[in-house]
């Protein structure tokens, strides 16, 4: 068995990366490449058949640092691109990296429809409550009252719970973790890759530059601490629920599609 | 030869796509293009292909581009409002050099306009609708047979040049029924692929042969990063360097521009030269009545099938010295390109904002005004 060192999966010729010091996206990238290296080594995944897809935003830059086939697409649309990739070649393992703005604002429609169809992809959503790349504007997950460059008096809108949203649309496998839980995050990514169908991981993460700075959490460590203290794997008053929120099985879209094609071609029902 | 059938233009388009090797269709219903999606949904599974109805046109073209990167020839079909929604992804397909075919069965606009009526008012949108400098290929059929043939040509040029190709048709041709030969000797072009299993260090070289680099396809071990951002030869974002941007954009434009004449000659055009001072120019559904008028009047007529890229030299070679009357179902789009190629004073427009093409009588009256 060839040892797949996670270091071989990084495009070192692109370093230094564009992320700010202390950005939560670093933790997510770290977890992702380590899980991928393990999966490749165990032969559970083939690096030549693994594709990363992302939209636009700081988080969506992550695929560009991983030495795999990757498609850095348009703002909000990675799941629509992924639908074409997965349906055209179901042998590919497709991982979508997105942000809260990317996935839930401009991409909200694609998010709910990919969940409804049960597209076989693993979605990692770096949820930093803010638009990082464009400089800190309000996002659909910004908490009520929080400050952003476009909510200088505090956010008057209620936020989306992305896990509830995709579960409502039919996603069979949904988890929420934070960058304060790196080991659990790794395990969640590994699980998501094992599951067939639409797997969604909401990763609460720190953006010290654009969220923390405006909301009294300038230091990234403080933000990580906040994430640890304000989340719980149990239902707790005043805390954000993290953990495995749903883990069910449902036939993925491409299977139904290819069974139907088989049926049309042979006149026989597929299995 | 092939099978003779009596089909609607939109149906012939779907058959052309399948004959060209299209095995993926993603779309969103819109009049007057819907029959293309309907036929594809019935036909694709029969040939092992995938039809998917997406949540909107933005998603449709995204899925088509994704399918293309997964190695499959892919198409979408729409009309004005849907074509507008696709514009960001047209630009993406140009930047990421993704072969794909977009059928636009033009209808009256602006906005939702006239869903069931013909128009040719997206000529400039096909060329300039997305932001940035770019070139694409757009072909305009006048008959049901050409719906079939030019759809195949769209796939071929798209694969050859790694650009989105637009079948810029209109409601007249999309909805009419005519005899069509579904040829059994269709020549198809497949994109050039790099050898399988090799990591590619420079998937986007500055000066590849023909200016078109071979296309790495996902899942074949190439390990490429593809982005819509300005990128260097490695495919890595290089957004701050004006020189990298200039070289990339010039190559993307030149790979189409430099072959403009070749595209026109390969796809073909009608040029019926007659002893006359006036020459008529028309394309698509509108050309049908114009050709009738030209015959009756005994004047020269030029019908391009290639709308983009435009070749000003060719237009000069053919039409210099004539009083040129361009007839189109818009208030002046193609005519602007003709004006730039010829002596402006000699170029005239008979423009209809859409709804229906002008009758031969209307064209004849206009020509008489010009020559009289
Ligand atoms: C069509 C379009 N609209 C707007 C933008 C500008 N834009 C770039 S990134 C971004 C928001 C990113 O926020 P998020 O998805 O939360 O990612 P983050 O940067 O926080 O990781 C926006 C609005 C764009 N690139 N394209
Ligand atoms: S702006 Fe925020 S999300 Fe973007 S890199 Fe900086 S810290 Fe990370």
Verbal overview:
Chain A has 271 residues and is of the alpha/beta class. Chain A has eight helices and eleven strands. Chain A has helices at 24-41, 78-88, 100-106, 108-117, 162-169, 182-194, 220-229, 253-266; strands at residues 50-54, 69-72, 93-99, 121-127, 130-131, 137-138, 173-178, 199-204, 231-232, 240-241, 243-247. In chain A, strands 2-1-3-4-8-7-11 form a seven-stranded mixed sheet, with helices on both faces. In chain A, helix 1 packs across helix 6 (182-194), helix 3 (100-106) crosses helix 4 (108-117) and helix 4 (108-117) crosses helix 5 (162-169). The model of chain A has no long low-confidence stretch (mean pLDDT 96). Chain B has two domains: 2-182, 3-Layer(aba) Sandwich (Rossmann fold), CATH 3.40.50.970; 269-371, Rossmann fold, CATH 3.40.50. Chain B contains 14 helices and 16 strands. In chain B, helix 13 (334-341) links the parallel strand 15 (323-328) and strand 16. Strand 2 of chain A pairs parallel with strand 10 of chain B, so a sheet runs across the interface. Iron/sulfur cluster (SF4) binds next to loops of chain A.
Summary, kept brief:
The complex is a heterodimer of chains A (271) and B (372). Chain A has 271 residues and is of the alpha/beta class.
Number of helices of chain A: 8
**Helix/strand-derived class of chain B?**
alpha/beta
Q: How many strand segments of chain A?
A: 11
Q: Main sheet of chain B? A: 8 strands, mixed
Q: How many structural domains can be distinguished in the coordinates of chain B?
A: 2
Largest sheet of chain A: 7 strands, mixed
Low-confidence stretches of chain A: none
Query: Hey, which two chains have the biggest interface?
Result: A-B, 39 and 48 residues
Number of helices of chain B: 14
What are the bound molecules? Answer: thiamine diphosphate, iron/sulfur cluster
In which range does the helix fraction of chain B lie? 25-40%
């Amino acid at each position: 068995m060839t040892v797949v060192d996670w270091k071989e999966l990084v495009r070192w010729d692109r370093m230094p990366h564009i992320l700010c010091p202390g950005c939560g996206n670093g933790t997510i990238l770290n977890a992702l490449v380590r899980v991928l290296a393990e999966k490749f080594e165990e032969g559970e995944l083939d690096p030549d058949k693994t594709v990363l897809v992302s939209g636009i935003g700081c988080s969506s830059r992550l695929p560009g640092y991983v030495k795999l086939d990757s498609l850095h697409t348009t703002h909000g649309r990675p799941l629509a691109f992924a639908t074409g990739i997965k349906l055209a070649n179901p042998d590919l393992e497709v991982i979508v990296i997105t942000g809260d703005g990317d996935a839930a604002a401009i991409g909200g429609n694609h998010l709910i429809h990919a969940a409804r169809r049960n597209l076989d992809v693993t979605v990692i959503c770096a949820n930093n409550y803010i638009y990082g790349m464009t400089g800190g504007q309000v996002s659909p997950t910004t908490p009520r009252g929080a400050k952003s460059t476009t909510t200088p008096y505090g956010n008057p809108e209620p936020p989306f719970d992305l896990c509830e949203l995709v579960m409502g649309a039919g996603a069979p496998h949904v988890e929420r973790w934070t960058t304060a839980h790196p080991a659990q995050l790794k395990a969640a990514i590994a699980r998501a890759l094992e599951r067939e169908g639409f797997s969604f991981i909401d990763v609460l993460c720190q953006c010290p530059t654009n969220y923390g700075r405006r909301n009294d959490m300038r230091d990234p460590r403080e933000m990580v601490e906040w994430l640890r203290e304000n989340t719980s794997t149990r239902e707790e008053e005043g805390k954000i629920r993290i953990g495995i929120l749903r883990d069910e099985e449902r036939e993925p879209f491409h299977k139904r599609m290819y069974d139907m094609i088989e049926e049309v071609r042979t006149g026989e029902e597929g299995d | 030869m092939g099978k003779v059938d009596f089909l609607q233009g939109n149906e012939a388009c779907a058959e052309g796509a399948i004959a060209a090797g299209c095995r993926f269709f993603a779309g969103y219903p819109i009049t007057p293009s819907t029959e293309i999606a309907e036929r594809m949904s019935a036909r694709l599974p029969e040939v092992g292909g995938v039809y998917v109805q997406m949540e909107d046109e933005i998603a449709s073209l995204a899925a088509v581009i994704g399918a293309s990167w997964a190695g499959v020839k892919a198409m979408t079909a729409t009309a004005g409002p849907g074509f507008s929604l696709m514009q960001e992804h047209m630009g993406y397909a140009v930047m990421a050099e993704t072969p794909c075919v977009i059928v636009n069965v033009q209808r009256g606009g602006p906005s939702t306009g006239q869903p069931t009526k013909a128009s040719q008012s997206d000529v400039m949108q096909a060329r300039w609708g997305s932001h940035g400098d770019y070139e694409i290929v757009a072909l305009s059929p006048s008959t049901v047979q050409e719906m079939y043939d030019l759809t195949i040509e769209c796939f071929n040029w798209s694969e050859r040049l790694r650009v989105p190709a637009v079948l810029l048709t209109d409601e007249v041709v999309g909805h009419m029924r005519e005899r069509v030969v579904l040829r059994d000797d269709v020549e198809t072009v497949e994109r050039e692929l790099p050898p399988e299993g090799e990591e590619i260090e420079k998937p986007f070289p500055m000066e590849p042969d023909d200016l078109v680099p071979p296309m790495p396809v996902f899942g074949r071990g190439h390990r490429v990063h593809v982005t819509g951002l300005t990128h260097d030869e490695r495919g890595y974002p290089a957004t701050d360097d004006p020189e990298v941007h200039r070289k990339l954009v010039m190559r993307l434009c030149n790979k189409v521009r430099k072959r403009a004449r070749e595209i026109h000659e390969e796809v073909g055009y009608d040029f019926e030269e007659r002893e006359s001072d006036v020459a008529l120019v028309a394309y698509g559904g509108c050309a049908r009545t114009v050709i009738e008028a030209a015959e009756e009047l005994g004047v020269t007529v030029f019908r391009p099938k290639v709308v983009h890229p435009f070749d000003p030299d060719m237009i000069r070679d053919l039409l210099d010295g004539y009083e040129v009357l361009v007839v189109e179902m818009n208030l002046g789009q193609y005519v602007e390109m003709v004006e730039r190629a010829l002596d402006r004073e000699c170029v005239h427009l008979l423009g209809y904002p859409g709804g229906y093409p002008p009758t031969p009588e209307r064209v004849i009256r206009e020509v008489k005004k010009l020559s009289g």
